[in-house]
Amino acid sequence: MRYDHAKMLLYVVFISGDVYAYKEVPEKVYKDFKAAISKGTFLNRKIKKCYEAVKINAE
Fold first, then answer.
1. pTM
2. Which helix (H) or strand (E) segment is 42 a member of?
3. Residue 27 CB: number of other CB atoms within 10 A?
4. InterPro entries in the record, alphabetically (predicted)?
5. Distance (Å, rounded) from C-alpha 24 to C-alpha 10?
6. Quick check: helix, strand or coil at residue 48?
7. Is residue 45 within 8 Å of residue 59, measured between CB atoms?
8. Which strand (E) or helix (H) includes residue 53?
9. Which of 7, 33, 50, 53 is within CB 3.0–4.6 Å of 20 for a Cys-Cys bond?
């Protein structure tokens, strides 16, 4: 995972190799995601449902 502070984009790389950029993610959400014990649960509950995603590439 990577976060672009200037653009408020959260980049997530999945096991498949696919990369998604989640738009307008506040820095606090990114920090909470980094600190989450279960990244998958946090992603599904707090990010996927709330922020628009754009697929960047597919491996």
1. 0.90
2. helix 39-42
3. 11
4. KTSC_dom (IPR025309)
5. 8
6. coil
7. no
8. strand 53-57
9. 53
**In this structure, what token pair is assigned to residue 13?**
């790389």
Separation of alpha carbons 10 and 5, rounded Å: 9
Residue that the structure tokens 């920090």 belong to: 31
Give first-to-last CA distance, the chain, whole Å.
Answer: 16
- Each residue of 4-22: pLDDT tens digit? 999 999 999 999 899 999 9
Gap between the Cα atoms of 34 and 18, Å rounded: 19
- Find the helix or strand (DSSP H, E) in which 30 lies: helix 27-35
Contact 48, 39 (CB under 8 A): no
CA atoms of 58 and 24, how far apart (whole Å): 22
